[in-house]
Amino acid sequence: MKINTKQINVMQVLPHLNSGGLVSGAVEIAKELVNSNFKSLVVTSGGYKENEILRNNSILEKLPVDSKNIFTILKNKKKLINLAIKYNINLIHARSRAPAWSAYYAAKELNLPFVTTFHGTYGTENFFKKKYNSIMLKGNAIIAISKFIKQHIQDEYGMTKNIHVIPRGVNTNIFSPKKVGSARLINAAKKISLEGNDQIILLPGRLTNWKGHKLAIRAISRLKLKNFKLVFIGDLQGRIKYKNELINLATTLNIANKVIFINHTRDLPSYLMLSDLVLSCSTKPEAFGRTVLEAQAMGKPVIAFNHGGSIELINDNENGILCKVSDVNDLAINLEKVLQLSVYKRKVLAKKSISNVNKKYLTHFMCKKTLNLYIKLIKNFREKNINY
Predict the structure, then answer these.
(1) What is the dihedral of CA 46, 48, 50, 53, to 10 degrees?
(2) Rounded to whole angstroms, how far apart are CA atoms 92 and 8?
(3) Model confidence at 289: pLDDT above 90
(4) Domain shared by 99 and 236, yes or no
């Protein structure tokens, strides 16, 4: 039976539309759905990326699906059912735990295929946490964003069926050295007060403790090189106390003038282009490592801790360096090593990095695999009316 794509309508449910890989993935899939003649409905509590959803001709509906309150979840379930009927939805895709609870029961009541995406490892420290997380295992298909996440699902939950590894992708229409013009570079350089001989160490990521900002500050305090700046770029998310802790640490180590904070930017490619190396020093394993991928797409050297999704993206000493987890000394040694790379070695590394991204990790690949999975599930439900 051939499916008429004009009859396929997909609902994505996610907690917000602000920063993060979860949101990027949803925006990218929404765009691809519309481009493929699917109907795209995004249900969320909202955020600054709302315009990206609307600009791509997706439908946006706001509900408090970020809430963990049981009564709100029950209300959301009824509202999701009404939206699914209104827009003739054929499949529901939940991208986080809180919205997944209401989305799952809505899909079950309507007998629709239900998809979940594991965007992270989530906490598994006690029974209640695991029970809360378990809703993500209810999908007729479970998308793991990396091999690392698939292994995590198998190890922590004993789940082996219906797991589909679909790595995240990078949009090379945005993240490409060829796409960043001089005006954008000048603007970014002004914001970080770039001086002639400065080498830029960039750490992208929201300001939260596990992203390893303190380790980065301690590591640069050990560098013998003097002309450098460490730039933190990412959402503050109200963590003023944490930012002050970082400032105080840098002041104590006499390197306050070396550390720069840039709040959320919509022009990350320009800062990546200005950087001499990009850091990913999260103390917890990254589920995938979109930051690593975006830096590689820009041809930049990356240093990441040797765990999580970074292991899948970095061939050590070829398109980046994997260093010991949370080891400040090893991090400092590798920082020094990369900052002293010759122009020739940087060119070789850039070529390998960009080539690897283009072969394996384009947004197009991620979107195509996801849409194929949607079609397979919908077709199966229509033909057999049983779970995939």
Answers:
(1) -130
(2) 11
(3) no
(4) no
CA 110 from chain centre, in angstroms, equals 30
What gap in Å lies between CA 210 and CA 326, rounded to an integer? 10
The Cα–Cα gap between 198 and 39 comes to: 49
- Stretch 57-75: mean pLDDT, rounded? 96
17-26, 120-129, 200-209, 277-286: range with lowest mean pLDDT: 120-129
- Based on the domain organization, do 236 and 349 belong to the same domain? yes
Q: Give the chain's radius of gyration (CA, Å).
A: 22
Please give the residue range of the domain that contains residue 294.
177-360
DSSP 8-state class, residue 112:
-
Calculate the CA 4 to chain-centre distance: 32
Against a cut of 0.70, is the pTM above it?
A: yes
The pLDDT value recorded for residue 1 is 42
The sheet with strand 259-262 has its strands ordered as 259-262, 228-233, 199-204, 277-280, 302-305, 321-323
Residue 47: how many CB atoms within 10 A of its CB?
18
CATH number at residue 239: 3.40.50.2000
Let me know whether 203 and 229 are in one domain.
Answer: yes
Residues 6+ apart with CB under 8 A from 282: 205, 210, 211, 212, 305, 308
**Cα-based torsion angle of the residue sequence 128, 133, 134, 139 in order, rounded to the nearest 10 degrees:** 160
Q: Mean per-residue pLDDT for 77-104?
A: 97
Phi, psi angle pair for 194, to nearest 5°: -65, 130
Assess whether 269 and 315 both reside in one domain. yes
- In whole angstroms, how far apart are CA 83 and each of 77, 171, 211, 367, 371? 10, 31, 37, 24, 21
Cα 93 to Cα 70, 115, 226, 322, distances in angstroms: 20, 5, 49, 34
* pLDDT category of residue 6 using cuts at 50, 70 and 90: low
> Which has the closest alpha carbon to 363: 12, 17, 19, 29?
29
